Amino acid sequence: MSNWRKWSVAGLMFVLVASTIFAAGFGIGRYVSPPYQQTSGSTPAELNQQFDLFWDVWQIVEQEFYREKPLDYPEMVYGAIRGMVSSLGDPHTAFLTPSQREMFSQDLEGEFGGIGVTVHMTDEGKLMAMKTLAGSPAERADIKAGDLILEVDGTSLQDKDVSQAISMIRGPSGSQVRLLIQRGSEAPFEVVLTRAVVSIPTVESRMLQDGIAYLSLAEFNAKATAGVRAALAELLKQNPRGLILDLRGNPGGYLHVADEVASEFLADGVTVTERGRDGAEVVHKASPGGKATKIPLAVLVDAGSASASEIVAGAIQDHNRGILVGEKTYGKGSVQITQSLSDGSGLQVTIRRWYTPAGHQIDRVGLTPDIPVTVSEEDLQAMRDPALQRAVTYLLSQTPQ
């Protein structure tokens, strides 16, 4: 196997999670390796026995299973791999089909073919549109926040997870997709959209009332560091009283980008520590020269803030650099490597855990906000943002005029 690897940290695994906001669709970072090459060495006899059992079952299915169409051998192999991987009990060790792996990679570069709408899986398992991206096919088709997407090209999204729905909505630029939309109590209606190249707005920034600066980071992708630095430079020119960093719905991304972003807010100190199964540690520290290391800071988080988002938020919280406002984070405290397989598919494998500067392991636990604020689906549909308002109130109380 080649020793070359591109370092990153896996974020919220889009194949497995259906409770956060995705831009049809968001992806996450990871380690990336070239195609896996089998290592030399004989297979243990007991392993051969297990494979004999596998082939016994395979042959019985081939010979005995009643079917009205030919067996899908590639899907049978994929299903067997999924079963093997799921038996490990780790939600972030997962098999990616070629199309899922391609979507995974596209997301980290910040562009893909799609319709430009962020979506959310409701508690009832319905795919809800949250907002449309400016100039996107979804905006031109007048898709609105709160619309439910019931079908894609005649196929129901019932019982589909977010990744499956996203993969159905996305496609080559210039191709068409037909959606069945439910808007409130109205009868469902169809819209036909022409997909286009969608550029994820990685960073959004603006000045709020009373001199509070706002910066939203959607993903720790290849564009994030430059975007954050440029936004901070513009915001700080206006001498804000405080700064809000919004990491809600941010599923993670590259590890080195998390380090770079954290360094914009931390003057020094540890950002995160990685620990392998052998106990070996890799300690990451903030780089000097950050633009926003002294301004009063509040970080917005929710259940969709994961992995690299939790690294940045956890470092800020542990160093008492700022406070966290919102909901408990997802709890993604592991690092993965993605192996490229021979047919273009991929295998994402957990290889390390990471710890906050204070030594907290947050996997399946998450970060607890200093100021808890719940944003309901009714708030989202009514365009209310109580967490943002609470962060503004807090910052104003810290910088009285």
Outline of the structure:
By secondary structure, the protein is α+β, with helices and mostly antiparallel strands.
Using the 3D structure, state the CATH architecture of the largest domain.
Answer: Alpha-Beta Complex
Work out the helicity level. 25-40%
Radius of gyration: 23 Å
The amount of beta strand, in percent, is: 25-35%
Q: Any idea what the shape is?
A: globular
The average pLDDT is 85
* Largest sheet descriptor: 7 strands, antiparallel
Short key terms for the protein model shown above:
2-enoyl-CoA Hydratase, Chain A, domain 1, 2 domains, Pdz3 Domain, alpha+beta, 401 residues
Structure, explained:
The chain is of the alpha+beta class and 401 residues long. It folds into two domains: 1-19 and 33-93 and 201-396, Alpha-Beta Complex (2-enoyl-CoA Hydratase, Chain A, domain 1), CATH 3.90.226.10; 111-199, PDZ domain (Pdz3 Domain, Roll), CATH 2.30.42. Helix content is 27%, strand content 26%. It is built from ten helices and 21 strands. It has helices at 45-64, 73-86, 98-109, 137-140, 162-169, 224-236, 255-263, 308-318, 377-381, 386-398, and strands at residues 21-23, 31-35, 94-96, 111-114, 117-121, 127-132, 148-152, 155-156, 176-182, 189-194, 196-199, 203-207, 212-217, 242-246, 270-276, 281-285, 297-301, 323-326, 334-340, 346-355, 371-372. Strands 1, 5, 6, 7, 8, 9 and 10 form a seven-stranded antiparallel sheet that branches. Strands 2, 3, 15, 16, 19 and 20 form a six-stranded mixed sheet that branches. The protein has a six-stranded mixed sheet with strand order 12-13-14-17-18-21, with helices on both faces. Helix 6 (224-236) links the parallel strand 13 (212-217) and strand 14. The longest helix has 20 residues, at 45-64. The relative contact order is 0.16. Residues 1-36 have low confidence and may be disordered.
